[in-house]
Amino acid sequence: MPELPEVQTVIDYLKKEIIGLKIKQIEIKNEKFLKNTAIGIFKQKLINKKIVDIKRKGKYLIFELDNSLFMVVHLRMEGKFFVDQKKINRKHDYLIFDLTEKFLAYNDSRQFGTFHLTDNIEELKELKKVAIDPLDDKFDVNYLKNKLDKLRKEIKVLLLDQTIVSGIGNIYASEILFDAKISPFKKANELSMDELERIVVSSKKILKLALKYNGTTIHTFSFGENKTGEFNKLLKVMNQANKKCYICSTNIVRIKQQSRSTFYCPQCQK
DNA sequence: AGCGGAACCTGTCGGC
DNA sequence: TGCCGACAGGTTCCGC
What we know:
- With 270 residues, the chain is α+β, with helices and mostly antiparallel strands.
- 26% of the residues lie in helices and 21% in strands.
- The protein has helices at 4-18, 39-46, 125-128, 141-148, 155-159, 170-180, 193-212; strands at residues 25-28, 51-57, 60-65, 69-74, 79-84, 93-98, 103-108, 114-118, 253-257, 260-264.
- It has a four-stranded antiparallel β-sheet with strand order 1-6-7-5, with helices on one face. The chain has a four-stranded antiparallel β-sheet with strand order 2-3-4-8, with helices on one face. A two-stranded antiparallel sheet has the order 9-10.
- Strand 6 and strand 7 form a beta hairpin.
- Helix 1 (4-18) runs parallel beside helix 7, helix 4 crosses helix 7 and helix 6 (170-180) crosses helix 7.
- The protein binds a DNA duplex (16 and 16 nucleotides) through residues 1-3, 6-7, 59, 74-78, 92, 108-112, 114, 153, 160, 162, 169-172, 215-221, 229, 238, 258-261.
């Protein structure tokens, strides 16, 4: 499901709801989500800890507990958090955190999500792999040039690679390349400085705009009490196959790259 | 080392 | 209505 704007939207929502609350009890209906901690230790470490902050790194949510403990969560395709005033029994709720006055439920219909516990976020293998954030000032044309210089893969595929730049997924990769007027097939090492600069600028522009709209809901993304992202209205190519490009009226094309859909305008993107 | 494809799961939608 | 295949905002692993 979620990319940078959606994950940040979830975090902003959760911060309003659960910062400062203490974990009183945890009900775990399926242990498969716990990736580096046995169920007993997981509960033992978290119970009686207070949630003091929630941060994002790439598409990971990092819950900071007091006494320097971190719960690192990846939502993958369908992970969702619900904050309930009382305990309710929802299909696919697999972890339920009793926060005394509220309940935080982790819901995941496809069961792909992951939970890691660590007392040192610098050391967690999964987070180490996460590259710079596209909204970071250090994400600029020189950075991209360095990263892509020797890579012959198609640029669309590399925008999805979280070790190059983090937070971009399948929706925004297509949207960014359309905005930058660059073909998704272009080989990374063949991009000019001008083209790289356009990718940098478009990445920041599209992601910031999507953030403003609370992300994109095409199928199932939601946060809070079934609130949805509103960036759909502004999608220019994603899911627009056979519709006319708003700039040149050429039909938007859908193809596959590494078994994932890419949408683009063959006229505007060269 | 690097690539494509499968695997992890469930749900939904469109076509016949 | 029902069955079947394709597809879904992600990542990792496996075999060539």
